[in-house]
């Protein structure tokens, strides 16, 4: 403890600096914690008290919030904290072997801090680098494309205590891997085009009069024309949310526009946490202006003055770039006051960076996190469109949805609707990864068959495809003529391919661990149920499973579906049920024929004693069980 | 007199005041819906899910669902009681509950609910978490082994005592109760033994020292009256009282 205080002598000044940068505002608690940790390289125990004092909130709230997010280290995690991305695609690409090699080289046990306090090595949920995995996060910075050489290089840098800022830049290089572009990825628009087009819709010789009025939105009938015309185009396009749920965007925007409140907010959900998806990473890296154009168009349509981009912590490497784009847009009058010369059109965007929590992708949990709280989904109703950020009307839209909205602002709703299927207009970006020759982004008009995608990405001997990540569905080869569309296979974009060599039981087990790790713990069924699913799957994996486990998982699924608080719990059983239905032999060959086998393993229980005594001879083992 | 709005609960008409939840209206009308984290004196938050019922066919936590006219609520069905039994079993498996040696036995909401719902076995493998107790306070013991994370103490301290004593930390299965002190010890908080937060714990986490067995086993709160009847006896009633 004392050694740690000595290590950061000016802790108080550092905390004060961060807190004042965030305006002493308790709703910025997550950001304050994250920045203090970045600044100090850790969160020293004394920091919690200081943050509580400067933000004037209870100490226990600071602890409670910090311990919710897995990237905030409430316990010492070493000078270097290495977290291996643990998506199934990382595992398929050899992440376990690489992690073992690193632990061996650094002389550290997984999940623990090395004895000299230098480094810890652990696992984290999918970091969104599935097209260039295996990947890891080193002190929050993404390092993709791992192989033995890279692991060796990282170990040398860590052992030499080289500061991350001095690590070779190529370690952090992330590729876009756009393999097929359609209207969105090939948009060809300049920054601000969408905003100017939206303003144009309202002009028709009226808009200049709105200039000196109280509010461009309310004061003058003519001034409302542009926003309403834009909203009409969004509605006409029949655009549906790209985050997975598929709610009609125009209806969401209209409900927010009509809701009464003191202020309205636009939130861009860039908490792309579904294992296997990485499209938003590319949109933010290479099309940030389109994303911000979409947010600004949304602000124009609903009358919002403030926007937030909630960037998942795994994409921390994009923050400086995104801040620079925002700065450039302010200078170009695409943000700030009187946007594009439209008096009263005032809007700005702030970036909040997440800190390792999948459930924050759920819109009400995301808002809680924006407000500096634990990311626990709210009770609904009321919904965010009426009671969102600070209880004010708020729209939360996915990155890709906002990009599509920008396109619609330029080209109109009919143009957009001409593409895709009856109930799914426009295009969809798929994040293709797994057993394919060319992983990356593939944008198609809605309605494309799974078979077409598999052909384009060079998939061979495909056994199964996980559509939309673990919360989506797993399909087998008999279903490859099904179509990507809300009518058939709705998806948030993940498209993970498994060839015939893969054990689908292990795929489901990986996903079960994911849900248990990410459950917020608010409700009983999800908190306990997801962990019990894990223990049942682990028991089968260990060769001790029986029909009893299969029955128990069915029972847990019923409880989760009936009573879980949010979508995480409702979908936590999907991977197991889908694979059980389609790949039952993968489970059954692991089962013992007995009806019940205790998970307790008598010989295994002696493991610890053997470790302590350094013995592993035959006499230190019980006779093998019958 | 204008007609009061009402909904149907298991086929029986339940009147409600605008703003009431299904649970509040049901209890006021002498109708019981099993629950654990709900308490009439504090803001409902809907985490235990024991009160889940079908509201117009949709499964909802009745403690947070606003009552609405002309809705049909199904609660006392075998399907839902089976769900409740499973949830109670999950809570038993999650913590370390040893009823025979627990001084809360007989006064415990979890135990009483288990009996009332007919929970006969643990149903799941016990997780046996490692949860140290906090005996730092001279008058109050915290035995986290029995915590069911209902947050009643968190709410009672905040809403009634006007203090910050308890909070939740961690997430998922690691979610746990903490106290508002840098030392992490109860003695360093401003808790008082007379606080509502100390009295409200439905299980045996927050225990007043030296009064343990003042009421002998057999004469305790739920020894004579099942929790379903006790909850109705405790429920706040409108002044007009029921007429039967």
Architecture overview:
The complex is a heterodimer of chains A (626) and B (244). Chain A is α/β, with parallel strands linked by helices and 626 residues long. Chain A has six domains: 2-66; 80-175, Glutaredoxin (3-Layer(aba) Sandwich), CATH 3.40.30.10; 193-417, Rossmann fold (3-Layer(aba) Sandwich); 427-502, Ubiquitin-like (UB roll); 505-588, Up-down Bundle (de novo design (two linked rop proteins)), CATH 1.20.1440; 601-626, no CATH class. Helix content of chain A is 41%, strand content 12%. Chain A is built from 25 helices and 14 strands. Chain A has a six-stranded mixed β-sheet. Chain A has a four-stranded mixed β-sheet with strand order 2-1-3-4, covered by helices on one side. In chain A, strand 7 (306-311), helix 14 (319-331) and strand 8 (348-353) form a beta-alpha-beta unit. The model of chain A is unreliable at 1-5 and 205-216 (pLDDT under 50). Chain B has two domains: 6-76, Ubiquitin-like (UB roll) (Roll); 101-224, Alpha-Beta Plaits (2-Layer Sandwich). Chain B has helices at residues 22-28, 78-94, 109-117, 152-161, 196-199, 221-224, 227-234; strands at 6-9, 12-15, 52-55, 58-61, 72-74, 140-142, 166-169, 176-179, 206-208. In chain B, the strands form three sheets. Chain B has a five-stranded mixed β-sheet, with no helix packed on it. In chain B, strands 6-9 form a two-stranded antiparallel sheet. A two-stranded antiparallel ribbon of chain B has the order 7-8. Chain B is globular. Chain B starts with 5 loop residues before the first strand and ends in a 10-residue tail after the last helix. The model of chain B has no long low-confidence stretch (mean pLDDT 94). Chains A and B meet through helix 4, helix 5, helix 19, helix 20 and helix 21 of A and helix 2 and strand 7 of B.
């Amino acid at each position: 403890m004392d050694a740690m205080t000595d290590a950061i002598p000016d802790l108080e000044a550092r905390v004060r600096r961060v807190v004042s940068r965030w305006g002493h505002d308790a709703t910025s608690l997550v950001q304050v914690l994250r920045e203090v940790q970045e600044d100090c390289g850790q969160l020293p125990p004394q920091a919690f008290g200081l943050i509580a004092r400067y933000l004037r909130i209870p100490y226990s709230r600071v602890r409670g919030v910090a311990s919710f997010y897995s990237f905030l280290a409430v316990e010492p995690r070493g000078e270097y904290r290495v977290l291996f991305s643990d998506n199934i695609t990382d595992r398929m690409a050899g992440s376990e072997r690489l992690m073992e090699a690193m632990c061996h080289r650094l002389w550290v046990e997984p999940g623990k801090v090395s004895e000299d306090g230098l480094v810890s090595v652990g696992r984290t949920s999918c970091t969104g680098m599935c097209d260039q995995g295996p990947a890891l996060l080193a002190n929050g910075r993404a390092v993709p494309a791992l192989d033995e050489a890279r692991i060796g290089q990282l170990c040398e840098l860590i052992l030499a205590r080289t500061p991350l800022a001095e690590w070779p830049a190529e370690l952090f290089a992330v590729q876009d891997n756009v393999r097929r572009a359609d209207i969105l990825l090939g948009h060809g628009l300049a920054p601000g085009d969408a905003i100017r087009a939206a303003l144009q819709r309202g002009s028709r010789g009226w808009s200049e009069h709105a200039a000196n009025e109280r509010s461009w939105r309310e004061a003058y009938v003519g001034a409302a024309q542009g926003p309403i015309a834009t909203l009409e185009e969004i509605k006409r396009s029949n655009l549906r949310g790209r985050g997975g749920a598929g709610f009609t965007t125009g209806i969401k925007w209209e409900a927010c526009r009509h809701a009464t409140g003191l202020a309205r907010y636009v939130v861009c959900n860039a908490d792309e946490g579904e294992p296997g998806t990485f499209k938003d990473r590319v949109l933010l890296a290479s099309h940030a202006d389109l994303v911000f154009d979409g947010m600004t168009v949304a602000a124009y349509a609903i009358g919002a003055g403030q926007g937030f981009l909630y960037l998942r912590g795994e994409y921390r490497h994009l923050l400086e770039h995104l801040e620079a784009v925002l700065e450039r847009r302010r200078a170009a009058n695409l943000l700030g006051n009187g946007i594009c010369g439209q008096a009263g059109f005032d809007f700005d965007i702030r970036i909040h960076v997440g800190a390792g929590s999948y459930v924050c992708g759920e819109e009400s949990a995301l808002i809680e996190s924006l407000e500096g709280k634990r990311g626990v989904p709210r009770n609904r109703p009321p919904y965010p469109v009426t009671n969102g950020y600070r209880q004010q009307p708020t729209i939360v839209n996915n990155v890709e949805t906002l990009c599509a909205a920008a396109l619609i602002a330029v080209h109109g709703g009919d143009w957009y609707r001409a593409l895709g299927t009856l109930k799914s207009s426009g295009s969809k970006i798929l994040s293709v990864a797994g057993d394919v020759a060319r992983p990356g982004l593939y944008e198609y008009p809605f309605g494309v068959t799974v078979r077409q995608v598999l052909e384009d990405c060079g998939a061979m001997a495909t056994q199964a495809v996980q559509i939309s990540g673990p919360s989506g569905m797993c399909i087998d080869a008999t279903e490859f003529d099904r179509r990507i569309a809300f009518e058939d296979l709705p998806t948030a974009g993940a498209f993970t391919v498994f060839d015939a060599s893969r054990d689908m039981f292990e795929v489901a087990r990986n996903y079960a661990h994911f849900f248990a790790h990410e459950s917020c713990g608010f409700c009983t069924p999800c908190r306990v149920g997801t962990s019990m699913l894990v223990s049942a799957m682990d028991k089968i994996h260990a060769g001790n499973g029986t029909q009893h486990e299969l029955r128990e998982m069915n029972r847990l699924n019923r409880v989760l579906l009936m009573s879980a608080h949010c979508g995480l719990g409702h979908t936590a059983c999907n991977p197991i049920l889908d694979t059980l239905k389609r790949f039952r032999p993968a489970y059954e060959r692991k089962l013992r024929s007995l009806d019940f086998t205790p998970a307790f393993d008598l010989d295994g229980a002696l493991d610890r004693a053997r470790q302590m005594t350094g013995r592993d001879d035959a006499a230190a083992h019980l006779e093998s069980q019958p | 007199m204008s007609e009061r709005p009402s909904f149907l609960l298991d086929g029986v008409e339940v009147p409600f005041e605008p703003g009431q939840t299904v649970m509040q209206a049901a209890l006021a009308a002498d109708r019981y819906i099993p629950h654990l984290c709900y308490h009439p004196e504090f803001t409902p938050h809907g985490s235990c899910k024991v009160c889940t019922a079908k509201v117009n066919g949709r499964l909802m936590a009745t403690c947070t669902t606003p009552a609405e006219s002309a809705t049909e609520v199904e609660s006392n069905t075998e399907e839902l009681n089976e769900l409740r039994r499973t949830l109670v079993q999950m809570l038993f498996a999650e913590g370390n509950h040893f009823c025979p040696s627990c001084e809360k036995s007989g006064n415990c909401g979890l135990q009483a609910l288990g009996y009332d719902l007919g929970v006969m076995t643990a149903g799941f493998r016990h997780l046996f978490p490692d949860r140290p107790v906090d005996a730092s306070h001279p008058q109050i013991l915290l035995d986290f082994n029995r915590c069911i994370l209902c947050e009643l103490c968190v709410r009672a301290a905040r809403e009634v005592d006007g203090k910050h004593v308890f909070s939740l930390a961690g997430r998922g299965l690691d979610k746990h109760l903490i106290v508002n002190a840098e030392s992490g010890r109860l003695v360093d908080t401003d808790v008082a033994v007379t606080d509502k937060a100390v009295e409200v714990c439905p299980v045996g986490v927050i225990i007043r020292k030296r009064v343990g067995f003042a009421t002998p086993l057999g004469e305790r709160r739920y020894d004579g009256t099942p929790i379903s009847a006790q909850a109705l006896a405790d429920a706040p009633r409108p002044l007009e009282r029921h007429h039967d």
